Amino acid sequence: MESIPPTPAQKYLALTQTPGQLDRAELETIYDRLNPVSPTFLDGEWSIHLLDTGHPAQAIAEDGLPLIRTLFSLEETEKNKVRQVKFHGIGACAVVPDGQDRVDRFRYVNESTVAATNEYKPYYRDSGVLHFYLTRVRG
Q: What superkingdom heads the lineage (predicted)?
């Protein structure tokens, strides 16, 4: 009996449970196969989790994570210019805050998980994107 290959979402969820540093190329290949989310899907409260790819900004981001919980509202997403964009040739939902050279992109994993990347060229330069994911806060 043939086994069904895992979906990109299943592969991504497996990577979120993998200890240690992830292979950035593998992560980006899986991320690129995920579907985009709509701005309205982001409405609500989310917890942020980093994925270890050895990105130079990771240590700084990890220090700030205990202080951060992300809350998206439709009003906020309109203010921060949530857009549908193409990233690596594939659709993604992006938040582009006013006055900042930063872009956060979001892709659908499941109803409670969103894959995300952060690009901040003035700080990261040519280091690529910082990978993280959001989990919906229930209750």
A: Eukaryota
